[in-house]
Write a structure and sequence with these properties.
Shape: globular
Number of strands: 9
Strand order of the largest sheet: 1-2-3-6-5
Radius of gyration: 19 Å
Structural class: alpha+beta
Strand content: 5-15%
Distance between the termini: 42 Å
Largest sheet: 5 strands, antiparallel
Length: about 300
């Protein structure tokens, strides 16, 4: 396969927009050192499979079909930076749909690099998982080889971070035995039952985690009940956010338009990781929720003002 990088099309320093010899547009992500990509012929709904690995100017890139969508990372960051809260039902729907899409892959294989940047949300509310076949481990990835229980951990961590605003390295929490802040203490929609499901997913002891993504998704759906967004509500919520930025597309420091795909590792720089290393020592957690009027359903209780945890 011959792929050309588009001159105006960088998503980030490691993710590019390109076009193959047939004119088909694609996403190219730099393959991390030590990673052995694998191809899958899966047609499972909600999975964007790896098409090919190409070499461009001495660097290896994984190639995926371009999936026009907003990443969960971008949605969460936009909400937290605006001082708003991330609706429990919204982010849970994204995580549950991603889990069930991964379960549907035949033959099943652990992803190994799930993050909020690898979960894409289409305008119709559908969810797709990027980086299947060439994972990019990041702050949500626990230590150890890729496995189904580690994928459970990663999705549990994605959910936890969205609800608490926590920006630390989750693998560090496990190795250092540090206690994660409970979502129910920071987010008015969360209950102790939600805490229980999440704490099991990110348990330090692998044997205490959900054994597979299907069970994790089922338990989360059961405790949420009618709080869980429908696909239509996800579409409505994302459309509302897009209206806020439609007139002013984001641009990078060099003036290039920033497109709606994120690095699967959360897009962290070395400076971000150094900052995150001290995040556990801080007591200020959460975000500062304000107007919830744009949400498909309002918060049950008026949110209390709180700082974002970094």
């Amino acid at each position: 396969m011959r792929v050309t990088l588009l001159p105006v099309g960088a998503f980030s320093s490691r993710t590019w927009r390109g076009r193959d010899e047939t004119g088909r547009e694609a996403v190219l992500r730099e393959v991390p050192e030590g990673t052995t990509p694998w191809r899958s012929n899966t047609t499972a709904k909600g999975i964007v499979p790896l098409r090919e690995v190409v070499s461009i100017e001495g660097r290896r890139y994984g190639v995926w079909d371009l999936f026009p969508a907003e990443s969960l990372q971008e949605v969460v960051e936009r909400l937290l930076e605006a001082g708003d809260v991330v609706p429990l039902g919204f982010v849970s729907r994204v995580v549950i749909d991603a889990a069930r899409a991964l379960v549907a892959i035949t033959p099943m294989r652990a992803h190994g690099g799930l993050s909020d940047g690898s979960l894409l949300i289409a305008t119709n509310g559908g969810v797709a998982v990027m980086d299947s076949g060439c994972p990019r481990p990041g702050r949500f990835t626990p230590s150890g080889a890729p496995s189904f229980v580690n994928d459970v951990f990663a999705l549990g961590a994605v959910l936890h971070a969205a609800l608490t605003g926590f920006g630390g390295m989750y693998a560090d929490a496990m190795t250092k035995g540090l206690q994660l802040p409970s979502p129910s203490q920071l987010h008015d929609e969360c209950t102790p039952a939600v805490d229980d499901v999440m704490q099991r997913a990110v348990a330090r002891n692998v044997e205490q985690r959900h054994p597979d993504l299907a069970l994790f998704a089922d338990e989360l759906e059961a405790v949420l009940g009618d709080q869980l967004f429908s696909v239509a509500q996800v579409a409505q919520f994302v459309a509302g956010l897009m209206l806020l930025v439609e007139a002013a597309p984001a641009t990078g420091a060099d003036g290039r338009v920033v497109l709606a795909v994120s690095d699967a590792d959360g897009g962290e720089t070395e400076e971000d990781e150094e900052e995150d290393a001290g995040a556990w020592a801080r007591d200020d957690a959460g975000s500062t929720p304000i107007d919830a009027g744009a949400k498909p359903r309002p918060l049950k209780k008026k949110p209390t003002k709180r700082k974002r945890h970094r």
